[in-house]
Amino acid sequence: IAAYALQNRANMQVVVSSFDSDFFQLVDPNTCVLRYRGENTLLCDEGYVQEKFGVSASRYADFKSLVGDTADNVKGVPMVGMKTAAKLLNEFESLENLLANTEKIQRAALRNSIEGSRDRLAKNQRLIRLNGCEEVPFPVEALRFTYEGQKTGEVLSAIGVK
To answer: How many CA atoms lie within 13 A of 86 on its CB side?
Structure first.
């Protein structure tokens, strides 16, 4: 999914339909995430990510590396919750820059926690970052969707989901 999105978003509008928040790191002016919930369906764009997490979508993988992701069994940094992660990333602009400048973190306990978590953060980045370098099995033209008034139930039935 990431490979298709990253390889094609310069040429077209990309909508990733998923509840997996990892896809928020792909969001940009041409890419959004559709979270289908019937009448409560959300189209998550850059504004949504910024408002919900306090960081830009381009920093989302760094954010998740700091806070962890229980759904993916990725342990975050002790003492770093969502607000602290957002504050640090907005101040230092990236996880890499944060790690290069830990001496500038005012709270000693937080600084020590981050410095002691360098290996974990490197591992988290490898697990979380969607780099899109995988080879795609089909040309994007073969995946084009044309809406012809289908209802969700009809689409699911057509692919064998009941």
So the answer is: 12
